[in-house]
Amino acid sequence: VTSVTKKTLRIELFAKELGFDGFGVTRKVPIESIEKYKKWLNLNFEGEMSYMRRNLEKRSNLDAILPGVKSVVCLRTNYLTTDKDMDFIHDREYGDISLYALNEDYHDVLIQRHKKLEEKIKEEFVGCRTKLYIDTGPILEKPLAQAAGLGWIGKHTNLITEGVGSYYFLSEILVDVALETSEPSIDKCGTCRSCIDICPTQAIVAPYVLDSRKCISYLTIELKGVIPIEFRKSMGNHIYGCDDCQIVCPWNSFAVKTDEESFRALGDTPQLIELIRMGDEDFKKRFKKSPIRRTKRRGLLRNVSVALGNSGDLSAVGPLTNALSDHEPLIRAHVVWALGELLCEKALPILRENLKDEKDEIVINEIKQVQDTLID
């Protein structure tokens, strides 16, 4: 057993003590994954996520991030704290939030743990340099994780680990010394296509290929503007992310729950009507520690409006009518659609009365679409 093997093993054991659930090491980004990523971009499947086109050199050549890099330590942190099934997705009273976002922002939770592991690496390999990423940098973390033996990229494009499932965060530490490498993971999806068949918006356009522009996670989190009308009904009660493709994955029947206290849900699952009434200060207070703050209030209430439009709940008409006077045009626009869905032609006098002085183009456009749909 070499000294490098011993040092790598000590680092791995320390990582487990810190609370990491998976540890693996690889050398570089697999060439085939770089080519696949470029083809994906050529199809414009990244939508408005312009950052995915930046730093292509860094994504393919880790030396551009850390000169002299020889190892990538890939880490897995399970976040599952509660079971979830498809029944909840059909509960129209509540908003469905992706499991990872029910708790404190994982970036904040994991940073100290990673810094301690960095210190351990520098203790074992004196004088080495490191660079840390927690889902924040321009690297292809899923291909790296597969090469490091943490799991394989499934047909839904999430990483899956045998005996564990896919409910976990990935992170990496680049190191300019050679650690002992791990055996890469082998794809075990077989002929299964459960994730492809369940996707409400048919965003998995082929096995292992996701068109982000159709994905509910993209539509509710990454997209900053108007949600395309053709996807709204398919969104159901999803208001922040979507776990459908993971819930039906057979490998997640083995999903391992975490003991990490910080990943416990911050509060009760929100009622949609309660959320549509939420003001700016309420939003900041409720979601200040949550990943949901990313969407800002206007993004979340845009999503909530769509969910209420899909709910069939006529008790939402009053709160939605009040929201027609919201100061955010993006919210008003989606409230218009929601009222049209709930009330059909009865929505028209409400819209005329409350929006007779409307000046914003996106709201006016929604009113026209509702009128055209109902009058036809």
Could you give a quick summary of the protein structure above?
The protein has 376 residues and is an alpha+beta fold.
The best one-word shape is elongated
Number of strands: 10
Structural class: alpha+beta
Strand content: 5-15%
Strand order of the largest sheet: 1-2-7-4
Q: How would you state the average pLDDT, rounded?
A: 94
Helical content class = 40-55%
Regions with little confidence, pLDDT below 50 for 5+ residues: none
Please outline the major beta sheet: 4 strands, antiparallel
Element layout with pairings:
Elements (H helix, E strand, L loop, with lengths): L2 H16 L3 E5 L4 H12 L13 H5 L10 E8 L7 H4 L6 E2 L8 H19 L5 E4 L7 H7 L4 E2 L5 E2 L7 E8 L18 H5 L5 E3 L2 E2 L5 H7 L6 H4 L5 E3 L3 H4 L24 H5 L3 H8 L8 H16 L5 H7 L5 H15 L3 H8 L6 H15 L1
Parallel strand pairs: 3-10
Antiparallel strand pairs: 1-2, 2-7, 4-7, 5-6, 8-9
Helix pairs in contact: 1-5, 13-15, 14-15, 15-17
Explain how this protein is built.
The chain is of the alpha+beta class and 376 residues long. Helix content is 42%, strand content 10%. The protein folds into 2 domains: 1-267, no CATH class; 270-376, Leucine-rich Repeat Variant. It has 17 helices and 10 strands. The strands form 4 sheets. A 4-stranded antiparallel β-sheet has the order 1-2-7-4, sandwiched between helices. The protein has a two-stranded parallel sheet with strand order 3-10. α13 (296-311) packs parallel to α15 (329-343), α14 packs antiparallel against α15 (329-343) and α15 (329-343) packs parallel to α17 (361-375). The protein starts with a helix and ends with a helix.
